[in-house]
Amino acid sequence: MNELSPVFDRAAARIGQLSGHFINGAWQRGNAAPIDVIDPATETVIGQIASGGATEVDAAVNAARAAFERPEWSAMPAAQRERLLLRLADIVEQHQDEIAAIETLDNGMPYAIARQMAVGSAISSIRYNAGWPRRLNGETTPVSVPGNWHGYTTHDPLGVAALIVPWNAPFAITCTKVSAALAAGCTVVLKPAELAPMSGLRLAELVAEAGFPDGAVNVVTGLGTQAGAALVAHPGVDKISFTGSTATGQSILRESAGSLKRVSLELGGKSASIVFADADLAKAIPGVAMGIFGNSGQVCAAGSRLFLHDAVYDQFLEGLAAFAAKLVVGPGTRDGVHLGPLISAGQKSRVMGYVEAGKAEGASLLFGGDAPAGAGYFVNPTVFVDARPDMRIMREEIFGPVLSVMRFSDTDSLDDLARKANDSIYGLSAYVWTQNLAAAQAMAKKLRSGSVKINGSGMEFALPFGGFRQSGLGRENGRDGVEAFTETKAVMVGWS
Ligand code: NAD
User: Fold this and answer.
1) Residue 205, CA distances (Å) to 27, 92, 181 in order
2) CATH of segment(s) 5-267+471-491
3) pLDDT confidence of 1, banded at 50, 70, 90?
4) Which of 43, 137, 187, 443 has a 20 to 30 Å separation from 390 between CA atoms?
5) Which residues pair with 218 in a beta bridge?
6) Residues 242-298: pLDDT tens digits?
7) CATH architecture of 272-466
8) Ligand 1 pocket: which of 35, 125, 300, 348 to mutate (most atoms <8 Å of CB)?
9) Catalytic residue among 266, 397, 476, 483
10) Atom 21, ligand 1: residue with shortest CA distance
11) Residue ranges of the domains in the chain?
12) Does 124 sit in the ligand 1 pocket, CB within 6 Å?
């Protein structure tokens, strides 16, 4: 046990200071009653955030607008923007331990994972996006109208970007969005999730420390239905970049239609993993297991449906059970813990509701389906076999450590398999495990999802990420992710 170790003491003290909205480079407190923030491992209050609404959103959007228009930002050379982002990445890296501890107390994820994956990947995404200001070139285009013309395009920043973030990987998602928006030349109003807001607030301080001008990054905390909705409705917002549930994404699209705000949506998933008979099980078993149990299943791209070939069915499931038995579920502040709690009591009861639904609909529980006794919103890794495509556990996003398994055999063609994997309203990711790269490539072509990973998983910031169908609209990462914060402008110069 190291629950009282100094890094968590320092993080707890820092959390106590992160209260208020961060607007135009300064902390501001609102008048509304603050919202308690709870450590999901202990169910205790670790801090409070301000409950923002239309007034605070208006102040933040105005600050972002003024910063966007000031030459200090709008005329900043691309190389300077790059330098500021690289400096921000360095500063985040210097605070890696502290931010990871904040993330552990706030979100529940195990400290080692928070440090390497959450904060580590956030640093990588900032450094990746830092490369874009100087590379965001347009095109020159032959012009066919009469006369002599030079035709070219530019990618102009959209203006004020509202970034609305979920609680499942708060720091990583926040840094991806903030760095892409700033790289494109936008200014930002961030709305962190009320269930895990602390690392986003800490980022605002570090952005200021890196030397970004006041107003370039503002943060308004509060409830989605108040602070979030006010941002979506605000006429001064040019772009909404949202990550969260499909239902909220749909509501944001409806609410922003009147002003035709540009909208990017990264939403839910029900991603398929397909394990062929010739898969390297030594890699596929841990890969599939951590693809659904990692972050206690609270991952949009989680491989929550497993299609498993007959020939390796028993061997794979034995291996999966043995792997899962070694996973330690507990508070992320303890050494050696692999899986932390779910984010809230509501999320835990939602996940346990799906476990009951799976049993009631006739799936067989291979292991798990229960929760450790005591405080904290923990759920043990759970696997259902004999799942059918019409069951709720196969169709709906559970967002917990629950895997549903279906068997296939040689009588299923690749088209049959793709049809089963594609049979979802979602289309975020898919995972294929086989040593036959021709079959893998054929599957990659047939699968209708934004990403296909063959013999592995993980996030690559140079590749676009996003969903087909109800998994979203638009892409993050790669060139697409930065261009999503720009408008393309066509310029024609008549030269004689
Ligand atoms: P959520 O939709 O409840 O909340 C996300 C954010 O939106 C929060 O900041 C919340 O305060 C805000 N919000 C809620 N209602 C709003 C409204 N009416 N207007 C404006 N903002 C509003 O989602 P969640 O429960 O925090 O996150 C879990 C979901 O996020 C899952 O469905 C998961 O799949 C998805 N997710 C997707 C990705 C991706 O990249 N595709 C990544 C992570 C999580």
Assistant:
1) 10, 10, 17
2) 3.40.605.10
3) very low
4) 443
5) 189
6) 999 999 999 999 999 999 999 999 999 999 999 999 999 999 999 999 999 999 999
7) 3-Layer(aba) Sandwich (3.40)
8) 300
9) 266
10) 228
11) 5-267+471-491, 272-466
12) no
